[in-house]
Amino acid sequence: MNLGAILFEKTRQAPSPSKDFHQLLVTENQVILRTWRISIRKDQRYIPPSQRKVPIEEFDDDSLLQTDINRIFGEDTLRLVHSIVCKDWLARLPQNVLIHLLSFLDLVDIARLGSVCRSLRKVCSSDELWEKIFLSHCDTINDETRSLAKEVGWRKVFFTNKLQLQVQMRRRKERNSAEMKRKITPAEEQIPLTFVTQSNGNYDHY
Questions:
Q1: Integer CA distances (angstroms), 151 to 20, 44, 154, 167, 177, in order
Q2: CATH number for region 92-182
Q3: Prediction pTM value
Q4: Where is the F-box domain (predicted)?
């Protein structure tokens, strides 16, 4: 298969303790990861370089190759490769900048953008983005809403109408109250109660 023009190339040594050397190539047609084994062991001195390659259109589904690129070259490089594969240079922006820009889009546009590739789908469904969107539609956020968002996520909280949101927060409060009651220690439950009554000038204890 013709590799096509090289769109991106990066080389580096693997993270310690490995001494292996790696080359990452992104061409018009393929993503290629080459590895040269470096070892002081005699039986590994003449191991030929290995190569893993995947067609551009299949890279988004190759989680193993993505994991190796992230481990060797870092998350920023993986995001860059995703942006090249998606042919969407928007994904090259720093994530905090991208989230800020996406927060101004219509909800339909966010959904469409999230269907472009896995990298953008991850950003479009992130809690950071949906917290910004929620804040843009609400003047204030109380502590109960924030606690609920930690449990179910800001996206779900955003799409929950006010009545359903109140019901969920009430149920959460009741659940927390029940859990607190269950945490009462047996010693606390068995504390004897003492009643004092006065009879003919004398105090009796029960």
A1: 42, 50, 9, 15, 16
A2: 1.20.1280
A3: 0.49
A4: 87-133
